[in-house]
Each structure stands twice: as C-alpha cells, then as structure tokens.
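Thread amino acids onto this structure.
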C-alpha cells in the first residue's frame, strides 16, 4: 500500500496547467482521470485529477492563489487510524479542518479527517474501504 493517497495544490489557471500536465506526465502514463466543474468545487474553480488506473492522485485547482489550498492526503488501512491521526494531530497543535467521518460526496466508504498543520497546509488521512479495524 502506498503512503500517499493524493496531493492537491492551487494553480493560477487550471486550463493552462491541465494542458501542461497532460503533456508533461504522458511519458509516465499519467493521464487526466477526472475534471470537476466550478459548480461542484469548494473554491468555485475548476479541478483536474491526474493518475493511473482510473484513480486521481494529483489534483490541481484554480480560483485560489498558488500556495493556498495546498493539500496532502495519506492513505490509511482502516478507520481507527484516521481517528487516531486526527486526535494526535490536534494534540500536536494542529487545527481541526474536518473531523473524522464519511465523505459520501466522494463515495460511500471515503472516511477521512482533516487538520491544518502549523503552516496552514491541509493534511488529510483517508481510509477508502469499509474497514473499521485492521482485523
């Protein structure tokens, strides 16, 4: 299992960056998997997801200054790890940016928690299975 689930960052122009990444990542067999229109995003800008095997692991979006909206998501094998991350991150001084729970707008088993680190980076831990424990 990979430790990273996905990374996201803001770009000045999502369409310019989309064209760049489509071309630049083609030799790696990384393709645009999905585009989410402005009506369905938090920033009201376009989002493009790139990856392999129909799963987007790199996301770019616009309508925020580059550097703002930087996001990294770590993969967890079960939901108890997501809960433990959230509790440990808050104890370490992180700021709650979304408590542990299912994010059904992604899919029915997307269980995640979000914390802002000391520099405001949105750190997520996500379990994308229905597993509650490692057993």
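Threaded sequence (135 positions):
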């Amino acid at each position: 299992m990979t430790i990273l689930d996905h990374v996201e960052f803001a770009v000045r122009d999502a369409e310019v960056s989309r064209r760049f990444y489509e071309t630049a990542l083609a030799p790696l067999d990384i393709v645009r998997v999905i585009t989410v229109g402005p009506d369905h995003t938090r920033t009201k800008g376009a989002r493009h997801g790139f990856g392999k095997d129909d799963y987007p692991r790199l996301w770019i979006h616009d309508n925020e200054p580059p550097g703002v909206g930087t996001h990294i998501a770590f993969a967890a094998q079960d939901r108890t790890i997501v809960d433990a991350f959230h509790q440990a991150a808050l104890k370490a001084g992180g700021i709650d940016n979304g408590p542990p729970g299912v994010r059904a707008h992604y899919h029915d088993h997307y269980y995640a928690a979000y914390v802002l680190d000391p520099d405001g980076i949105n750190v997520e831990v996500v379990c994308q299975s229905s597993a509650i424990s490692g057993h």
